[in-house]
Amino acid sequence: MGFIHSKQFTVKQAQILMLGLDSAGKSTLLYMLKFNDVFLTLPTIGFNVEMIETGAGISLTVWDVGGQRKMRTVWENHLENTDSLVYVVDSANIQRLEESKKELEIILKNEKIKNVPVVVLANKQDLPGALGAEEITKRLNMKKHCHDRNWYIQPCCAVTGEGLSEAFQKVTSFAKSCMKSKQEAFAIFRQH
Ligand code: G3D
Ligand code: MG
Q1: How far is the CA of 23 from the centre of ligand 2 (A)?
Q2: Could you give the CA distance from residue 96 to residue 13 in angstroms, rounded to a whole number?
Q3: Which residues line ligand 1 at a C-beta cut-off of 6 Å?
Q4: Cα of 76 to ligand 1 centre, how many Å?
Q5: Using the 8-state DSSP alphabet, how is residue 171 labeled?
Q6: Any bridge partners for residue 84, and if so which?
Q7: What is the predicted pLDDT for the residue at 2?
Q8: Are the CB atoms for 131 and 120 separated by under 8 Å?
Q9: CATH for 6-191?
């Protein structure tokens, strides 16, 4: 029996790393994205991982790593080979925005994730007092910390799914261009 190898059937896989403080809504978001439903979540010990088909010739392997303080030390172990970072913020928990900003700053300084694009999800927009995308952009100091990479901020609500489709379209296009740049850099490296 023959084996058909055609470029047309090749689906690329992008590695998407989802980080953010505990209770920002990462696991809720992951399951809404995967199953289009709300699940009861428990604090994530370790990580959850799901494959999301985009239908755009690329599938996303989304890693949702626990965000409790003791878990943040292992974030670094997940940074390698990331094609796009998704950083989730609880837009209604204003007291924890400073902590969230500091953690993002630490990640973005890591060499392993240099130039990797970032999509910030300003989650929990359904809650009263939730800050909008513009205010979150300012509070996280995005323009300063992401001046060397592509970034985007999307308001969303993980429990209704609002904003997730737009967000992950952006994640997909960022991941594609990141993978292309890595391939080009690798090709140049091989020539020398
Ligand atoms: P995490 O994985 O980032 O730690 P979870 O966060 O997904 O476990 O969510 C933490 C809590 O926030 C959950 O509530 C979850 O239902 C809630 N949540 C997540 N996204 C949203 C949102 O967009 N709006 C609202 N209102 N709540 C959200 P519980 O009560 O189970 O702790
Ligand atoms: Mg979780």
Answers
A1: 7
A2: 34
A3: 20, 22-28, 41, 43-44, 67, 123-124, 126-127, 157-159
A4: 24
A5: H
A6: 16
A7: 41
A8: no
A9: 3.40.50.300
What pLDDT is stored for residue 10 in this prediction? 61
Q: Is 68 a catalytic residue?
A: yes
Q: Which of the ligands is closest to the CA of residue 24?
A: 1
Instruction: Locate 76 and state its tokens.
Output: 């670094």
As given in the structure block, the two tokens for residue 35 are: 């199953």
Contact yes or no for 93/131 (Cβ under 8 A)? no
Q: By C-alpha distance, which of 115, 108, 117 is closest to 175?
A: 117
Q: How far is 143 from 146, CA to CA, in rounded Å?
A: 6
Do the beta carbons of residue 87 and residue 65 sit within 8 Å? no
Assign 18 a pLDDT band (cuts: 50, 70, 90): very high
Average pLDDT over residues 107-113: 95
- For the chain, the domains span 6-191
Q: What is the pTM of this model?
A: 0.92
The CA distance from 132 to 154, in Å, is 9
Is residue 7 predicted with pLDDT exceeding 70? no
Model confidence at 188, in pLDDT bands (50, 70, 90)?
confident
